[in-house]
Write a structure and sequence with these properties.
Largest interface: A-B, 61 and 62 residues
Distance between the termini of chain B: 46 Å
CATH architecture of the largest domain in chain A: 2-Layer Sandwich
Largest sheet of chain A: 7 strands, mixed
Number of strands of chain A: 26
Number of helices of chain B: 5
Strand order of the largest sheet of chain A: 3-5-1-12-9-10-11
Radius of gyration of chain A: 28 Å
Strand content of chain A: 15-25%
Shape of chain A: globular
Structural class of chain A: alpha+beta
Oligomer: heterodimer
CATH superfamily of the largest domain in chain B: Beta-grasp domain
Number of domains of chain A: 3
Mean pLDDT of chain B: 97
CATH class of the largest domain in chain A: Alpha Beta
CATH class of the largest domain in chain B: Alpha Beta
Helix content of chain A: 25-40%
Low-confidence stretches of chain A: 1-6, 776-790
Order of helices and strands of chain B: EEHEEEHHHH
Number of helices of chain A: 21
Amino acid sequence: MTAIAAERYTGASIKRSEDPRILTGAGRYVDDIKLPGMLHAAFVRSPLAHARVLSVDASAARELPGVVAVLTGADLDAMTVPAPDPLLAMFGGSGPMPEFTLLATDKVRLVGDPVAIVVAESRYIAEDGCELVEVEYEDLPPVMSAAFALDPGSPPLFANLGNNVARPLSRKEFGDVAGTFAAADRVMDFHVDVHRHQNVPMEGRACIASYDAELGLMTVHAATQSVHITRNGIATRLGMDADKVHVLAGDIGGSFGLKIGASREEQAVAAASRHVGRPVKWVEDRGENLTVSGQAREESFDIRAAFGDDGVLLGLDVRMVIDTGAYPGMGGLVPSIVEAMLPGPYKLAALGFESTAAITNKATYVAYRGPWASETFIRERILDVIAKDLGLDPVEIRLRNVAARTEPPAMMITGRPLAGVTTRESLERVTQLVDYPAFRRRQAQAREQGRYLGIGVATFIEAAPGPRGPEGGLGMESMRLRLEEDGIVALFTGQMPHGQSHQTTLAQIAADEFGVPFEQVRVVVGDSAVVPFGLTGGSRSATMTGGVALHGTRQLKAKVLDFAAHLMEASAQDLVITDGNVWVRGDPESAVAVSEIAARAAAGESDGDVDAELEVEASYDGGQGGWSGGTHCAIVDVDVETGIVKVERYIAVEDCGALINPAVVEGQIRGGVAQGIGAVLLERSAYTEDGNFQSATFMDYLMPTACDVPRIEIEHLQTVPLDADVNFRGVGEGGMIVAPPTVVNAIEDALEPFGVRIYEQHLPPARILELIAAVRPRTGAGTGPGRLPGRAGQGPRRC
Amino acid sequence: MVDITLRVNGATRTGSPEVRKTLADFLREDLSLTGTHVGCEHGVCGACTVILDGRAVRSCLMLAVQAAGSDVTTIEGLAADGEMSTLQQAMWDSHSFQCGFCTPGFVMQATAFLGDHPDADERQIREALSGNICRCTGYQSIVEGVLLAAERNRERS
């Protein structure tokens, strides 16, 4: 335990209670679990992007010693029921839903589409079995771009839809769009592409399903962001009552949005366990993870911007096309969030927004850390281009547009109040920290020597959870809290941490509120039979779960004090709890340990007038909520001979309200920024025109390393408390949302002597060289070839 | 199946793995040492790093039978008496990790590196860790943990 200078745990960088186990190899991830009689699964997967399945012959595989079962798509179809994607079922998709089977039966729709599951005594044998399954395919023309998908002549992936439109084109207008554009001094058009990239948690998807036929009970050990959404997904698909599916989760090796609910493979594993009557484990390998677990962000935007000669952005008219990949996932839900968030922290008089979603023969669109991030990318990108058009500095154009903090707060044109937003302060602070004028001088000197340095800034706001708006609530978060008989304050939460450190941060809040040492609080997660419904995602836990922990602990404490008052023959109002002891205010001699109170309650020492059941069910509506946000700044050094971009310095000025644990907050920010830097400089989920997937290994899908990510300097603003008690706000997604425009803005600034304008997000060295060579704005074209530079080999390299 | 004998975390261990079984799978499945993680199975991510005869190696790229007669240290061997090593303690103090999946690889890689380079600076540490992938942290907290451990080692000696 760190010696804590402050009186309170909350606000201090308390060492994580998760760390002793993970640092010593004692963590327990799905693949670490071994059940008696456990079998191992592997999937037969399509080598083609789009094809009819003519036949599946599993006879040779079934005869292989050690293979226990091979279930084809048809076999599984007979033992399961149709069910929607669990996430879509929760949030509701729009339009007709495509019809498809759990594993492919009539056709395959992407490279890696599962066709059969082989269950064997070992993973090695299961993979041998996959090699023996003969599948005959008949090629169909692949649909590899959104543009082709939206062409009525493209072959439909799903027969019942008749086309490849996942979300029909729809348009909404906020404010007077036509009038604003007609009256503006200037109007500019842009086409911006955001490339396909993906979550890539270090642990892929994984589960063990274990069916007990006598009890009719399915137990699933899952890697998931929500044990209940996984439970619902499996129960629905298997035609079981939800209370007959018990989902357990231990340590989870990252997710970033990928592991919500139960994927088709996980549902198939559960069905296979029920079929063979033994536990079945499936652990996705890296090739499967990169190829089929899910991908994100392939979006294109046609943007028309209206602005004044003074640089004031007046209106935007945007058409968004999202490539949602093959099977229904989150892609169809993303455009609405992009639309709502597009104004960001800026005054904007009018917004026209239309969007459509296309179905293609690529991996399914999944949530990835800030799924709507493109709103920030396009806004922050075009602000820079407009600034250059007007001869304004990028910081200056932002200061001219950012909404002033007024009371009542300014409203986003799309409807939400900009309460407590501190964008202006963060912009001003970033320019001080980086010494903006000094950088411009250094940049000029460097250019004289043929070195191209650039500086970029970008701002963002993140609805984490968002302000309480005119429509009211922010949703609810539940928690059960209990004083156990050994004096432990136990918090049962539906949060399913996978790196977020909830077992530490929630304990900090509860320890302070209750008055017990940090070690006396236990945070219980990962058991669908024990914890309330919940989901770790959307940067919600700081406010929502932090809030319910605070208010719930307060309720539990009141109950404990009522019981203690009865034991101690005092008035509850006169009792206080500090350091794990209850005592009468002003009389230290009266101290009784909380553990003793708990033991006596458990022993039934109650005369009936006072409740000895020291447990409460709490819920929290988010209070006043609030925005997270800030400004990031990058300085880059672009080598115009090689195209290599080095991020020399990176500064984040962020406002997430009150910090629960600064080290945890900073870890979230740095991790998000690293993913954003990777997205711009390295990562791309690449397909050929005929649908082959080209980035199925870490030699092709390049992840940022310790040499690619600079030190990230962070300063916290804690400007505007909105709520009497809970001013913690989420930071899970902000870094990933704002880092891409920050870095791209810096690259464009570095290349200003060439007149380069950038309308895309993926800028590997080859693309940088192409941009310099072209030296003209790109409008209307798709992403260029941008060949991925392969990594030279394994192991350490030079920074 | 081939009978092999090797030393793991200071104890003599025997087993009969299939020839094709990787050292990582042998450690995890046959010896129940699940602290070693398998992140990519093609030698890039480094999650499976163990120390074999004094050098950090990727246990996913090596067959168990190749390790016969070798001396292997896994993450479980660093705090064998229940007390964390200086590096593990420094990483705890530095909030080095988040989800923990890449952790054993970084800890083993950094343990081997610090053994050979007790005076390494930040750049050398970053280079030494650049063959290990972490998706959560952005690396800074890991580098700080290694720097802190190096400093504490120097103070002690």
